[in-house]
Design brief:
Elements (H helix, E strand, L loop, with lengths): L5 H22 L5 H19 L1 H21 L8 H8 L1 H18 L7 H23 L7 H9 L6 H8 L3 H14 L1 H13 L3 H7 L26 H14 L13 H19 L4 H16 L3 H27 L2 H16 L3 H6 L3 H15 L8 H4 L18 H8 L2 H22 L7 H20 L4 H4 L3 H31 L32
Helix pairs in contact: 1-2, 2-3, 2-4, 2-5, 3-4, 3-5, 3-9, 5-8, 6-7, 6-8, 8-24, 12-13, 12-14, 12-22, 14-15, 14-22, 15-18, 22-24
Length: about 550
């Protein structure tokens, strides 16, 4: 049409009209204009995940550390509500949801073939999500509506990463880049932690904490003379857990192409470790510190097969000993006595409010009570959870009684010991297969390094969950737990697929229609031999 691109003009006019509509909606918002903007960002996140699933995963990594900053800024644009908060919190899961749909449609309708590995990945994801959804719906919960939906998303939805990661990030190098990006993305949050420690909360952060939209307002009265920092994360617990775990990453050499790092590169990465550690210390959350120590210990034990088996036995033995000794610890008031001794030492050694807060062991007593219930409360051990037995977790003898805070007790209440034992046996089977594969690799192989790192980080989250079950429920720990398991799962699938393909090619019979093998070409500079002619001997 005389050089006029009608399609481009039509798309441009539609985009302009949509942009004007969104701008008017935001400016006329009755609650928070930023909250209205976040609604459209959530819709855009879903579309972006569906159109560009791989870049969407990188955006999701950024959201894990900085999505709460968007929530805090809402107070600058009006009077936010819980609905506005829900718009912000919907962005990460909608990014994942879009990528799930993209991968699934590519497998069913696109060029990607439906393979055995993809079906296994999808079945595993659906199984985990289905179990957690059933446990959340029929389990004890004080929330309804958006709260119930949030609980369902947080307690299983990210298991779909087992389905998307193998497709979006094939090969060891692409997985290395994703891990590297997650580490680099948290460096600005580390420096903001130091800023928050030096200057305290900003004005908009105070306003957000006092808005009634977050439980982190407790940071204002739990300070004991020092602000509990949480940087750009959604809470001090999240900041402590992730920053403590990423101290380990500072010591793992993952270079492009599995190249050997130079001395300068190695020292530069090591120099970040104290910054991550100190930033975690500023949160005053001991569960996160335990996650970091657990990850470091697991990485050391996963160096060899013998150490890995020994480490598993020690971990199970230590936790079993702690559970069995919990009633004895309560009987003799061991925790209050230890707290008194630690406070005397802290007061005589330093006047730092952070140290004083760190030696307050009130929450440790709650954990000990929960572990003691495992041996003293037979009601906990229902075959299929409290709901199936017609019980309620709220039916207790007094208001001060709590069943526990750890993931084990949460699982017993929601699912019961039968699904828990079956799930544990299945997890042990998968872990055994994965570790057999990992230790069959050369120690300097990139696949070995990434698998070892991800398993160590996963174990760190698991250590924290044994003291605080929120490590499995809260974003972004739940996302990283699924991601750090999905990466080794994908690596194992790729190796087994390559092994099956090699075996198939080796076992394939020769094709008779191909004819005899062609003769090698004659030597250069010599004419081909005629029939019945002998070659001339070399002089």
């Amino acid at each position: 049409m005389n050089g006029i691109n009608v399609k481009a003009i039509f798309v441009g006019l539609c985009g302009l009209a949509l942009g004007l509509y969104i701008m008017v909606e935001i400016l006329l918002a009755r609650s928070s204009s930023l909250g209205q903007l976040y609604l459209y960002l959530a819709i855009a996140a879903f579309l972006f995940g569906a159109v560009s699933p791989r870049p969407a995963m990188y955006v999701m990594i950024i959201c894990t550390g900085y999505i709460d900053l968007l929530k805090r800024l809402m107070v600058l644009g009006g009077f936010p509500t819980m609905t506005d908060v829900a718009y912000v919190l919907a962005i990460p899961p909608l990014l994942v949801a879009g990528s799930i749909i993209s991968v699934f449609l590519g497998m069913v309708l696109g060029r990607d073939a439906i393979t055995r590995d993809k079906i296994i990945s999808l079945v595993v994801s659906l199984l985990v999500v289905g179990i957690t959804v059933v446990g959340t719906i029929f389990g004890e919960s004080d929330s309804a509506g958006l709260g119930k939906m949030s609980a369902i998303v947080n307690q299983g939805f990210y298991a779909f990463l087992f389905f998307t990661i193998p497709v979006l990030f094939p090969g060891d190098e692409s997985k290395r880049k994703l891990l590297q990006f997650s580490f680099v993305a948290f460096i600005p949050a580390v420096f903001y932690m130091f800023w928050q420690r030096k200057f305290g909360y900003s004005d908009f952060e105070y306003r957000y904490l006092m808005s009634g939209l977050t439980i982190e307002v407790k940071n204002l009265w739990e300070t004991m003379g020092q602000v509990r920092c949480f940087s750009t994360f959604n809470g001090a617990g999240t900041a402590s857990t992730l920053l403590s775990l990423y101290v380990l990453y500072c010591f793992v050499p993952l270079r492009p192409g599995n190249a050997r790092p130079t001395t300068f590169q190695r020292l530069g990465k090591w120099a970040l470790a104290p910054l991550f550690f100190i930033a975690s210390y500023f949160t005053i959350v001991r569960t996160g510190w335990a996650c970091g120590l657990g990850g470091l210990a697991a990485y050391f034990m996963l160096a060899t097969k013998f150490r890995a088996r020994l480490g598993l036995l020690l971990a199970v033995g230590c936790f079993a000993t702690l559970v069995l000794s919990a009633p004895w610890i309560l009987k003799y008031n061991m925790v209050p006595k230890a707290e008194t001794i630690l406070q005397d030492i802290a007061l005589s050694a330093t006047n730092d409010p952070t140290v004083k807060r760190a030696v307050v062991l009130g929450t440790a007593m709650d954990r000990i009570h929960g572990w003691a219930n495992l041996t003293q409360e037979p009601r906990l051990w229902q075959p299929f959870g409290f709901s199936a037995a017609g019980m309620s977790a709220k039916d207790t003898t007094n208001d001060q009684f709590h069943w526990g805070h750890d993931a084990l007790i949460d699982s017993l209440i929601k699912f019961g010991y039968v699904p828990l034992i079956l799930g544990g046996l299945f997890a042990m089977f998968l872990l055994n297969r994965l570790m057999r594969y990992m230790f069959s690799l050369p120690r300097n192989a990139l696949a070995f390094k990434t698998t070892r790192l991800c398993l160590a980080l996963t174990f760190g989250i698991l250590v924290g969950a044994m003291g605080n079950g929120a490590q499995f429920r809260n974003f972004p720990q739940n996302l990283f737990f699924a991601l750090w398991l999905a990466i080794p799962f994908s690596t194992y699938q790729e190796a087994m697929r390559a092994k099956r393909e090699a075996a198939r090619l080796a076992a394939a019979p020769a094709d008779p229609s191909a004819g005899p093998d062609p003769e090698p070409p004659p030597a250069r500079g010599r004419r081909p031999l005629r029939e019945f002619e002998r070659p001339t001997p070399a002089l």
